[in-house]
Amino acid sequence: MEGLDNETGRSKLRISVIGCGYVGLVTGTCLAEAGHQVVCTDNDPQRIAALKAGVVPIYEPHLDAMLAANHRAGKLSFTSDAAEAVRAGEAIFICVGTPPLENGDADLSAIDSVAHLIANEACDSKLVVEKSTVPAQTGQQLKRVLGVYRRNSSVELRVASNPEFLREGTAVEDFLHPDRIVFGVEDEASERQLREIYRPILDRRYRCPVHPSSCPATQLPMLVVTTINSAELIKHASNSFLAMKISYANMIGDLCEKVGADIREVTRAIGLDPRIGPRFLDAGLGFGGFCLPKDVQAFIRLAERSGVDFGMLKEAERVNRRRIDLFFDKIRQALWVVKDKQVGVLGLAFKANTDDIRFAPSLEVIRRLLAEGAQVRAYDQEAMDKTAEKFPQVQYCREPYEVASNADALLILTEWPEFRSLDWVRIHGMMSRPLIIDGRNLLAPSAMAELGFEYYSFGRPMESFDLQLVPPSIPNAFAASASA
Ligand code: UDX
Q1: Vertex 311: Cα angle to 309 and 317 (nearest 5)
Q2: Per-residue b/e over 95-125, b at no fewer than 16 CB within 10 Å?
Q3: What span, in angstroms and rounded, lies between the C-alpha atoms of 326 and 479?
Q4: What is the model's pLDDT at position 209?
Q5: What is the pLDDT confidence band of residue 5, given thresholds at 50, 70 and 90?
Q6: What is the number of helices (H) and of strands (E) in the chain?
Q7: Ligand 1 neighbour 436 (Cβ under 6 A)
Q8: b/e code 262-292 from CB counts within 10 Å (16+ = b)
Q9: Ligand 1 pocket, mutate which of 173, 246, 414 (most atoms under 8 A from CB)
Q10: Which atom of ligand 1 is nearest to the CA of 440?
């Protein structure tokens, strides 16, 4: 074990992080913040050069300041010399991408290349930690190939799994304030080493950049120590359950539309049952992003390979894919003809507080609008540059009101809270037709109707009776979804 951190007197371990995507950068930076000596490497030399210059290639609240501070303090460094990074760490966190293959399986080729690298470059014993999201049994394969590829048989390469549950937009907070930390290990030495690495976070003994004054008195993280297979499965099972919960809420939403009920009131009431819980019941355009869609596919594939028919997860995926069709039905019903219509889009990112558009529902909506000959103007706080690379023919606006100018319809595609507090009276006056189709149930139907808008959303009747979800003193004109 390495030395002690002069400042905190805690054990300071040498940690390598391979892969500087959002999981690698958040993991490396937070472990440096927790007092460890961290070196990060990536096979993209430009990304490493940018990071060395303090440029963070992703938008993630708190990350750039923390990264800069730990870099300055010498606790966090970046190198494009992957061999050097391998040799530097006692523990090596594999954080490379595992994107979906055509058939839905996770592409594990980057993990295999890292196995080659570690086996060739390790001169002393290492704990190799899977942080990337991988299907169960990957750790066993990794252990096997490390043994096959290893040049120096005297070097011990132990494998462990440590899945992440970070959400984009709150990843730093999720890492420092996790609900649970999961270790998949095969021996006590690996468990002990991982406990040392996470000690500061388990005991919440670090300076928290998210809550400078004091952290909320929430429960300390639960530690789950299990086998590698179980740890790997926990990640896929968690994400797949969240996906099913969202698709279930969307199915109920569709039913609400048919029977004249209000999805928001229904999910509020069922969520009050602690066995169900209020979160991840927001109906709308469905789940996107780089995690849920691909993890659902990979989990279905793992089940199929194992002779288990995961029908309910396939159905959740089918329900999710159909959200766009249903949303487009609403657009057509309202607009009748889409061709040559001026359509304004509020929100491009797959969710709020991120610049990420991977598997964002907005991309498919825009693709179809353009295919049907609509003129599209769009605004998003963070994701316009990335979207412009895909859809240069869309007009991107510097501020949200511009999308409403002479628009025949306004679509809300991302649940950015800022959109709630827009001046909707002003927007009403700017549109050529005050028509809103809200794909994220962000606004309140009755309030929008009062302002004279035609307003459509998911799972809610046009004129709904707004359940007083907030104390009567606070006007709730736009507090559409208290669960947000
Ligand atoms: C997810 C998991 O939450 C996280 O634990 C895991 O580590 C990575 O994958 P993330 O992809 O950042 O995180 O997004 P998340 O906040 O889970 O949202 C996923 C998608 O579901 C978004 O498109 C969001 O708009 C949608 N969503 C979320 C709903 O449609 N309804 C909800 O109630 C919640």
Answers
A1: 130
A2: bbbbebeeebbbbbebbeebbebbbebbeee
A3: 24
A4: 87
A5: low
A6: 16, 14
A7: no
A8: bbbbbbbebbeeeeeebebbbbbbbbbbbbb
A9: 246
A10: 30
Sign (positive/negative) of CA torsion 338, 340, 345, 349? Answer: positive
Using a 10 angstrom Cβ sphere, with 0-12 exposed, 13-18 middle and 19 or more buried, the burial of residue 476 is middle
Q: Whose CA is nearest to atom 27 of ligand 1?
A: 287
Compute, in angstroms, the gap from residue 304 CA to the centroid of ligand 1: 24
Q: Six-digit token pair at 411?
A: 């679509």
Q: Which two tokens stand for residue 430?
A: 């700017």
The structure tokens listed for 214 are: 């004091």
Cβ neighbours around 209 below 10 Å, total: 18
Q: Is 379 helix (H, G, I), strand (E, B) or coil?
A: strand
Residues marked as catalytic:
291
Bridge partners of 222? 180
pLDDT in tens, 173-222: 999 999 999 999 999 999 999 999 999 999 988 888 888 888 888 888 99
pTM of the model: 0.92
Order the strands of the 454-456 sheet from edge to edge: 395-396, 375-379, 342-346, 409-412, 435-438, 454-456
pLDDT higher than threshold 80 for residue 249:
yes
For ligand 1, atom 2, name the residue with the nearest CA: 167
60 lines ligand 1 (CB under 6 A): no
